[in-house]
Design goal:
alpha+beta, Butyryl-Coa Dehydrogenase, subunit A, domain 1, Butyryl-CoA Dehydrogenase, subunit A, domain 2, Butyryl-CoA Dehydrogenase, subunit A, domain 3, 4-stranded antiparallel sheet, 11 helices, globular, binds flavin-adenine dinucleotide
Length: 394
């Protein structure tokens, strides 16, 4: 490691020691998740303090240029920052679809005006974004989407419906795929629009999940007026933007899951170990070791892949991260429930600890990892075609 990078590490470590509040180094309960947005609530005031301090450093988006709210770090510095945050179990300061998905796409493909208008607010968590891709008739076959946008003089009029729109009822704005040409081949009639969910004609209906929470909505648009300047890219050229954003989504989902375990499985299993011997069942222990090694190995692979492209988007290999991480997280959930024995039935009430309830709900939530952001089957198809160059079987 270079001396420069070493002194950066020393600097980061000292800053974090001083500025990361103690409560931000503990596992994060759901209600303290820092989603930001116009209606952000901070149950724990330290969450706000931590967010504000990280915003000031530009470290909510460390690699973005300073003029858009970032710190202009190179990939090696950004990785040092990540490692130091991880070392003290620091909570993520800002959870944001803007940071993970829309921001990188705007940096690459937005106009200068769009960058200046949207990126600083994303970096500061002022606007909470959601993703309007899937529709009742368009999931894996995303290009079959039918939400319509008619082009008027200086605006679009949007009609249709999106489904599985995560956090739509809590979000402020949406990045949305719309059909602007119904006669063109399906990939060539799609445009990429940004609009405020407070606009007239937007309705959001929450849908309940297996875990009991209501993570997402069906979202309806009835003559929603969207200013022309909110179009990203050209009319009818939204498909390539859509695909690029999906790569950023897969990269961030893979990376987030890889780093997101508050409790290491081995520590969890120890809490439920045989009360006489204090030992974990040897078979379970070896499966936990394997899972932990796979997760660590994937983390190292992700770091190396990111260094190889110097922090820019990873392209098709993000599908590898997404598929592998969905699988690893599924296994983690199963192992956690197995290790917990009867506590693996935890749902609510005083018979179970909050951690037990969180683990069980996390296991159920994890079931969606192989669906959200593109299913594992679709990502395996991408790996086969784009990375391995295998022939199409059809
Ligand atoms: C927790 C969660 C959050 C989500 N958040 C959002 C969001 O914020 N915004 C948004 O727009 N969407 C969101 N989605 C939707 C998600 O992107 C879709 O569910 C996903 O793309 C799959 O589409 P589908 O549900 O219509 O399934 P389908 O496309 O109907 O697929 C059904 C099954 O068929 C398989 N399949 C389909 N086509 C093929 C093929 N060509 N080859 C092999 N197998 C195939 C699939 O893998 C799957 O197993 C979310 C989903 C979940 C679970």
């Amino acid at each position: 490691m270079t001396t420069e990078l070493n002194s950066f590490r020393v600097e980061v470590r000292a800053w974090l020691e001083q500025n990361c509040p103690a409560s931000m180094r503990t596992p994060m309960p759901d209600e303290e998740t820092p989603w930001g947005g116009r209606n952000a609530k901070f149950v724990n005031p330290d969450t706000k303090l931590w967010l504000d301090r990280m915003i000031d450093k530009g470290w909510t988006v460390p690699m973005w240029p300073q003029e858009y709210g970032g710190a202009g770090l190179g990939i090696e510095q950004a990785q040092v920052l990540e490692q130091e945050l991880e070392r003290i179990n620091a909570r993520i300061p800002l959870m944001s679809f803007g940071v993970w998905m829309l921001g990188p796409v705007l940096l690459e493909l937005g106009t200068e005006e769009q960058k200046r208008r949207f990126l600083p607010d994303i970096a500061k968590g002022k606007i909470r974004w959601c993703q309007g891709y899937s529709e009742p008739g368009a999931g894996s076959d995303l290009a079959g989407l039918r939400t319509k946008a008619e082009i008027k003089e200086d605006h679009f009029v949007v009609n249709g419906s999106k489904i599985w729109t995560s956090e739509a009822d809590q979000s402020d704005w949406i990045f949305c795929l719309v059909r602007t040409d119904f006669d063109a081949p399906k990939h060539q009639g799609i445009s990429f629009l940004l609009f405020d969910l407070e606009s007239d004609g937007v309705e959001r209906q929450p849908i309940k999940l297996i875990s009991g929470t209501s993570l997402f909505c069906q979202t309806f648009f009835d003559d929603v007026k969207v200013p022309a300047e909110n179009l990203v890219g050209e009319v009818n050229a939204g498909w390539s933007i859509a695909k690029r954003l999906l790569q950023y989504e897969r990269q961030s989902v893979g990376k987030f899951l890889n780093k997101s375990f508050d409790i290491q499985l081995h520590d969890l299993a120890l809490q439920y170990a045989d009360s006489e011997t204090g030992k974990i069942d040897p078979d379970l222990r070896s499966r936990i070791a394997l899972q932990t090694m796979q997760n660590e190995a994937l983390g190292l692979l992700i770091e190396r892949m990111e260094r190889d492209v110097d922090g820019s988007g990873l392209g098709a290999p993000t599908s590898v991260m997404k598929v592998a991480m969905a699988d690893i997280n599924h296994k983690r959930g199963e192992l956690a429930i197995e290790a917990m024995g009867a506590a693996g039935l935890a749902w609510e009430g005083d018979d179970f600890t909050q951690e037990e309830i969180t683990e069980v709900k996390g296991w159920l939530r994890g079931k969606a990892n192989s669906i959200e952001g593109g299913t594992s089957e679709i990502n395996l198809n991408i790996i086969a075609k784009r990375i391995l160059g295998l022939p199409d079987p059809r």
